[in-house]
Please model this.
Amino acid sequence: MAVTPLDELDSIPTNAPRAAADTAWHAQTPDAVLAALGTVRQGLSTSDAKARRERYGPNLLAQGKADTAWALLWRQVNNPLIWVLLASAALAIVLGKPLDGSVVLGVVVLNTIIGYIQEYRAGQAIQALSAMVPNNAIVLRDGGKHALPAAELVPGDVVMLASGDKVPADLRLLEHKSLRIDEAALTGESVPTEKHIAAVAPDASLGDRLGMAYGGTLVSYGTATGVVVATALQTELGRISSMLDTADELQTPLTRSMASVGKTLTVAILIVAAVMAAIGLLRGYQFIDAALAAITLAVAAIPEGLPAIITIALAIGVRRMARRRAVIRKLPAVETLGSTTVICSDKTGTLTRNEMTVQALWTCHGNIDVSGIGYEPEGTLSPTPTGAASDAVHELLLAGTLCNDATLGKVGEHWKITGDPTEAALVVAGHKLGISETDARRRVARIDAIPFESELQYMATLHRDDRGSVIYLKGAPEVVIGRCGVNPDGSPVTKVLVLEQVDAMASRGMRVLAVAGRRPEASMTAIHEPDAGAGFTLLGLVGMIDPPRGEAIEAVKTCHAAGIIVKMITGDHAGTAQAIGTQLGLLAASDRAVIGSELAAMSDEQLRTAATKANVFARVAPEHKLRLVKALQAEGHIVAMTGDGVNDAPALKQANIGVAMGITGTAVSKEAADIVLTDDNFASIAAAVEEGRRVYDNLIKSLAFVLPTNLGLALILITAVVFFPKIDGMPMLPMEPVQTLWINLVATVALALPLAFEAMEPNVMRRPPRKPGAPVLGRFVLTRTLVAGVLMATGGVGLFLYEYHHETGQGVSHAVALAEAQTMAVTTVILFQIFYLLNCRSLKDSLLKIGLFSNPSVYMGIGALLLLQLVFVYAPFMNGLFGSHALNLDAWTKSVLVAAVILPVIGIEKWHRNRQPSTDDA
Ligand code: ATP
Model:
């Protein structure tokens, strides 16, 4: 039984004791709860936590498998194709052909085993993915803040929550700031609940226990501190989780459409089999021979292996994508990725490095450049400010350091930051001026704060120094400057002139922050939004660069070559966005970024035009993202959209592929996404698209390989029943029914699966995206099936006839000549499949071009098959079982030559297709 963090909803609790969970924590005051749990507001000590951990165990829910082994097995068998096969086996046995019956049973058993193993492994792979997305909680231990895996939490731990977090265990809230929690996972209530910390009645329902935050629910707004009252199975989620539905995660649009194709095919094949049996009877076949031929046809023509092939191809895709740092949360995304036409990406951290460095300062005394790059706090200011200018810069950076949660520290040789890179850049700039953030924060204590939220675009902090209360405000210039009346020298703020400075910095690709301060008249103990509204002194502007990631520039090029449009959607200033957009190759120099307020004023119609035309969107709020996705979808696009914040969730859900950030993203965004990037890097999206295309290509290859075999075998049988003479009252068949089954049994299995491991088509990212909804069984697969199927049937039948007549002409008895000719026909078909498999390794390119040995699993399959075929031809017991006969070198040579005809034929077909403009289905 695998264990995953509490965030897995599909969990089944075991019968663990739950004494503590029955306490009505919500009815007690925070202090009473702390006392009852033997803890304090500063949290536990590490040693106490360790002891408790031993007593309570990890904060994990034991995860029940989505399916029991029997359910999984039943799913393999509960399939119309399999019922037909089982009925055929029973019929053959009843009709006195136990051998044929058992071979059919063998086909069924083998298929079931393969399907079972593959589905089991795919399920495991998908379950393992949830563990790849880290699930940390901020915990107070030994009086300090630590980010620990949520599994480490114990009752008594004090945990800090911020908007976007998933609550890691059941908490009694100790204090909070505008806390709103989405409890839909627990209560079904979709509107977030506003929390407070007062105790409520002991019999209050879950939704009314306002002083509690329950594990598995999501913080949609605000911040809080709470003490853990229950972990793992004692949490409310742990208690109800057995009632939660488990989603059928292995179903995708593709598997569903293949299942329906499979059903139609089965019916069609049954009809053809019945007609063939009727013809056989009319031609004077005995009932049993006609019935057996019909059964054989059904078994040979039904592509039983397909469901397993599709599942394994998807599972391999999932694993590969995870290795390339894109963790799939919802399986259908693997397919959808391949047809993505637009990727809408955030800027900061995804397209850029998220390593901010202050490069320019502005105060009312003029501009100053800051040298140095990265987080090394060595650097200089030029021109070196003196006098009033020096004081102004000092005050600007002191405010920037105080209105700030980031810290800078040395790890070994290098400086490392913790916290938001934008804020860290300010701390580093402060260091360059001799301001140590620890000293400053000790001297000027922080009383309260309004944390930065993208919607607010600012952060404000309340401090007390030796002169009394002071409020610092920093944020987007458009927001901050309007709240400022004067400069530090007492002159009034000229908004137009300051905005000119902002534009000048932004056009150099810098993110610009304005910093302001205010001394309230009365001493304050808490800060609320209106307190940050007006009456500020503008301390200055800070411009910082965050260069584009080198890989992102490359990945944008790759996407463009692959016919995918890349759009940048950022909360940053238009000028900054435009400069970075140009560096990334998203914008021509003459193009302009569209800003959020313009989007807001547009009608849906106008928005559709703007969304299609523009590639850079600035000062965009999360709700604009949702409208943009919808507009692009209305234009027929398949949209991948990134997001990291709480409010990005609707857009992530609406997008065809929602992409969340594994490192900086909130739990809420990850929950809503189809894919989580473990490195937050745009290049990983491009890699996932590439893998998605490869999965699809390999599926097409598998189909193009499997279906001709089914058709070829069916044609061989039909030709014989309809046209071949009867000899001594017995039908003359180029292959005995059991031999047909042999081919079906061994060849499809040994050969088709390796195709799922096939490497990328060389042109995979140099062709347009696949049209969504393009049928899997498109023109290419159908033509291929017809050409290769007919060729295979012709080769097999032709060689059979040649050999039979040649041998009987030499005086060999009918029985021996028949056995030899049949064995040759079987061998030819098997060799044909081997050659054809090599052809199928690439959709358009020759074997030599893709590298003869680039996929070793193909040769393992071929080796296994050849070995089995040698046993079939030469082992006496197989001769008895299957009516086969040893072949001489001459016969092998002929078989090889005839089978090899497929190579030039498909070669010509590929050459012809390569000259056509590229089509959707290959
Ligand atoms: P993207 O959407 O490309 O990732 P972003 O998410 O970084 O951009 P936001 O974080 O929403 O954009 O930032 C919007 C604006 O808010 C920034 O341009 C900046 O002016 C301001 N800002 C960003 N971080 C902070 C912060 N920590 N404190 C105050 N203001 C900030």
Observations:
- The first strand starts at residue 3 and ends at 5.
- The chain has four domains: 6-63+128-246, 73-117+250-323+688-758+776-914, 326-352+549-680, 357-545.
